[in-house]
Amino acid sequence: MPPLMRRARTGGLASLFTTLVATLVTSTLVAAQRVAPSPLAPVCPDGAQPVVLEGDYPVVMRAGTHWNRHEYSTEERTRVLFHADAIRQHFTPPPTLGNVPVLAESWVRAWGGAPSLHSAVSAKLVLVMKADGHLRTTFWQMAPFSSALSDALTAAVRAADKAGDFEGIMRPATTRGDDTLVVQLRSITAVPEAEELPLMRARLSRYVVDSPPSVIKAGGLYYPDGAAYFNIENRGEVIALVGSDGRAIRSGTQVSRIEWRDFLSTMTRAVETTVYAPARSGGCAVPSLFRHSFDFTLQR
Fold first, then answer.
1. Which of 84, 165, 172, 195 could form a disulfide with 160 if both were Cys (CB 3.0 to 4.6 A apart)?
2. How far apart are CA 291 and CA 270, in angstroms?
3. How many other C-beta atoms are found inside a 10 Å radius of the C-beta of residue 67?
């Protein structure tokens, strides 16, 4: 924090305000480090307690809208749903979601206060299918925080492939080689939409925020030399797990969109070196999620 405060002293009234904010955040961070057993635990002044909302919500599967720069057509989304339904037939819901931390998830739409796109179950599962209709590989573009759910879904994918259930849907004549399909999961608050396949119900909880997390000092961002040389541009998104100490927790931060791997290290490094004002609930500093968007463009 000292370098931030030294720079803050040099710019008049705005810098004075920044200095005061930085000092306040520094005090909060010191208190968090002293009191919280973990950055995933809330830090509360005497007598305060965070507000937690919980309930049972449906979890659905739906087709992704794109893979990297390629936007899926209606026909492609139909193929994704065909594969998602095959997975669903072999899926066994886990008895519990496991040890999922309670978080403030301030960017999500929350009709009626219910958590939509809850991190415990929200995910993007990528299927790479061979021309013969069998699975080449599968991986999480964005994994759910529930390892029990991710394990159950991975097992269902393998079982559906072994049973040959991914066969039987026509591929366009123009499609050659592998077919990359993205299946999305999310929690909802009402009945599923037409293209959403019900999967399970889950007990979900989150902090109700007084104020969302915000950036105090952004981490450094650079344009990869190789990408600049080849005139490569990129649009990326990183979801940072921000602890109650105002720092990103590396193990929980996920890249949810990237078009070129060259930009992976610069985006994750920027997030890991960012200083945040933590989210607050009931007067307590609480862990939360923060969505970063990065656009790397070249001047023409």
1. 165
2. 13
3. 17
CA distances (Å), origin 150, targets 46, 83, 104, 132, 135: 38, 17, 21, 26, 17
β-strand partners of 135 = 129
- Residue among 54, 58, 93, 55 nearest 191 (CA): 58
* DSSP state letters, 61-107: EEE-SEETTEEPPHHHHHHHHHHHHHHHHT----SS--SPPP-B-TT
Count Cβ neighbours within 10 Å for each residue of 186-221 and write b for 16 or more, e otherwise. bbbeeeeeeebbebbebebebbebeebbeebbebeb
Q: Is 281 helix (H, G, I), strand (E, B) or coil?
A: strand
Tens digit of pLDDT for each residue in 244-280?
999 999 888 888 777 777 788 888 898 999 999 999 9
Is there a contact between 131 and 220 (Cβ–Cβ < 8 Å)? Answer: no
- Residues 162-171: b if buried by 16+ CB within 10 A, e if exposed: eeebbeeeee
142-163 pLDDT per residue, tens: 899 999 999 999 999 999 999 9
DSSP, res 108? S
Contact 237, 294 (CB under 8 A): yes
The 10 Å Cβ neighbour count of residue 27 is 10
Question: Which two structure tokens, joined as six digits, stand for 156?
Answer: 């269902």
